[in-house]
Amino acid sequence: MELEGTSGDGRASVWVSGNQQPLRVRPGAGAGGGSAAVTEAATFEALKAAYDRSTATMKERMEEAHRRLSLPGLGGMSSLGASSRSRSWASPCCDRRRRD
Q1: Are 42 and 7 in contact (CB under 8 A)?
Q2: What is the distance between the alpha carbons of residues 66 and 73, in angstroms, rounded to a whole number?
């Protein structure tokens, strides 16, 4: 999977993998006419946009997988007949119930 991020002014584009590894960088039209600082800022902006897109995509996919699988602790336990209080497998550090 390749996800593209582009700077707001179109001076740079960056592609990252689903694991957020940078794959390639492409200067946009007009990138060569600017100073090094302008090119650097555009490239950084494009990298951040690609990272944000990758993070959002992976979050959406994980949420969809959780919905499809009805994983325990995410709302799917009621269909299995188990209550949240009878989860002997739950780790105390992961239990979000309020302790009195």
Answers
A1: yes
A2: 10
Amino acid identity at 43: T
Amino acid 29 reads A
Ordered by where they begin, the domains of the chain are 2-73 (3.30.1310.10)
Cα–Cα distance measured from residue 68 to residue 64, given in angstroms and rounded to the nearest whole number: 6
Give start and end residues of each alpha helix (H) in the chain. 36-69
Q: Which two tokens stand for residue 49?
A: 């946009």
CB proximity list for 13: less than 8 A, separation 6 or greater = 4, 5, 6, 7, 25, 26, 28, 46
List pLDDT tens digits, range 36-69. Answer: 888 889 999 999 999 999 999 999 999 998 888 8
Would the pTM count as exceeding 0.70?
Answer: no
Q: Are 97 and 84 in contact (CB under 8 A)?
A: yes
- In three-state secondary structure terms, 79 is helix
The number of beta carbons lying within 10 Å of the beta carbon of residue 26 is: 13
